[in-house]
Amino acid sequence: MPGQAGKVACVTSSLLPTTPSAVTLSQLRTALLSLHVEKLLAANGFQVYNSNGGCQSSVLSLFDVVALDAASSAGPVSSLHEETADVNSVRDKLLEVASSSPFTVGNQQTSQADEMLPVSKDKATAMAIDAKMFLEHQKLRRGGQGYDKNIGLINIKVAEAWSSVFEQVVTLEAARERLNDKAPSVVVHVTAVGRQFHQQQVDLLWRLLGNLPIPQTHVVHGRVASQKDRGNVNGLSAADFVKLRVEQMKEASVVKYGDHVKGEGWEKTIGVTTSGVIKFELLGTTPILNVKLDLSEKGHPLNNKGGSFVLYNYARLSTLFQHFEEDVEIEVYPELPSLEDTDVGLLTEQEEWALLFNYLLPFPSIVEGCVGKFDPSTPESSIQAHKICMFLKDLSRDLSLYYGRVHVLVVRNAHLSLENFLSQPYEENLSSSYKTINHKYSKA
User: Fold this and answer.
1) Rounded distance between C-alpha atoms, residue 138 and residue 143, angstroms
2) What angle do CA 121, 125, 130 make, to 5 degrees?
3) Under a CB-based contact definition with an 8 Å cutoff, are residues 41 and 384 in contact?
4) Within 10 Å of residue 75's Cβ, how many Cβ atoms?
5) What is the DSSP string of 296-349?
């Protein structure tokens, strides 16, 4: 996105410190969505920094068992997480701002959704900010697409405890200071709907104490539930869910390929395919909507047109080009022509024109359309995080129909070079799209 090139984005989330065994399905959705948002921003020219990398890495470590390369990147995404950071000076600085702010009031009660964190030493008195007054002064929207109309006082400290909102702001401000001269142009909060109120409080308190007059947009996602009569999500941890999908993928692979399914290569393929399926399940729905999973033991993920279907088509294209390049080396086929030397007049099939105009040509604008303009007056998100998964599903469907009727590399004729020339960018588009959901395909 030319208009966004060179800008800096800071991505944070509502994730709290946890252990892999305690991760919930909602937290898994938050972590995957946050990572996807980072990659979309990077693909649109932003320098992206994650201020909650420690918690996110802890959640994503679940995928170690399915060979997820959590460090793979579609762009320059850096972590601002630093365990040894001295936050005391940052806390003192923010408290000094709060003590002199016209929006600071004596704190008589705690806000309903707040959590208290113990404090060992500090001389600051109990205090809060009047967020309603601050919202009106800053001309920020309330209600509807704006900030929650029930936000009133936001506590900084009550008795002998810092509020969790304030502690998160301290962490974010410390992360911002580590950017040095790279001032963020937008902050993106990724949060579950149940943590939305809390995260809006963090947003407003940081705006005030950190003097942060930049857009802060909130990507809010719905709950993770189970389909009716298809298992029960209650009590199911994210680790249990990943284990279920791995076992289902192994079973489905054995049914399809028989005794060949064994060894390290197959284990890696099953793992990577499983991680792709899970990502499509949790990222393929508009974020604010609930995700409903099929958790029945027999509802294996190969029974749908989701992640496994897309991965299959990507693998088929990758294999096609591997074979084509091998045949080029032994002069069975000529090398692919450049775009300038390709005669598009050879396109005779309706599907070819549809693939060209629906997927190949508009792909850059589709990626660009995932990240809209950021409005500093509202937390409403302009990031369409589900569009890439929808694009991949639609492209795979139409490619599969075309491939099934026109067998590329089977007949050697004048049409061959054009078919392969068109197929190559589709494979590249698939690869680029996979990077935004942090996925790498690996063949057995």
Assistant:
1) 15
2) 130
3) no
4) 17
5) STT--GGGSSSHHHHHHHHHHHHHHHHHHHHHHHTTSSPPPPPSTT--GGG--S
Q: What angle do CA 290, 283, 169 make, to 5 degrees?
A: 85
Q: With contact defined as beta carbons under 8 Å apart, do 95 and 124 qualify?
A: yes
Answer whether 47's CB lies under 8 Å from 182's CB: yes
Q: Cβ(282)–Cβ(442) under 8 Å? A: no
Concatenating the DSSP letter of every residue in 82-105 gives -TT---HHHHHHHHHHHHH-TTEE
- The pLDDT confidence band at residue 96, using thresholds 50, 70 and 90, is very high
Cα distance between residue 422 and residue 46, in whole Å: 29
Instruction: Work out the pLDDT band at 203, boundaries 50, 70, 90.
Output: very high
Structure tokens at 233: 């999500």
Rounded Cα gap, residues 372 and 293, in angstroms: 29
Look at 256 and 90; give whichever has higher pLDDT: 90
Quote the CA–CA distance of 352 and 267 in Å, as a whole number: 36
Token pair of 219 as six digits: 């990507």
Task: Identify the helix (H) or strand (E) that includes residue 9.
Answer: strand 8-13
Phi then psi dihedrals of residue 371, to 5 deg:
-125, 105
Helix (H, G, I), strand (E, B) or coil at 39: helix
Average pLDDT score over residue span 394-417: 67
User: Distance between CA atoms of 175 and 177, rounded to whole angstroms?
Assistant: 5
User: Does the pLDDT at position 119 exceed 60?
Assistant: no
- pTM listed for this prediction: 0.85
- For the chain, the farthest-separated pair of C-alpha atoms sits apart, in whole angstroms, at 82
In single-letter form, the type of residue at position 57 comes to: S
pLDDT at 257: 85
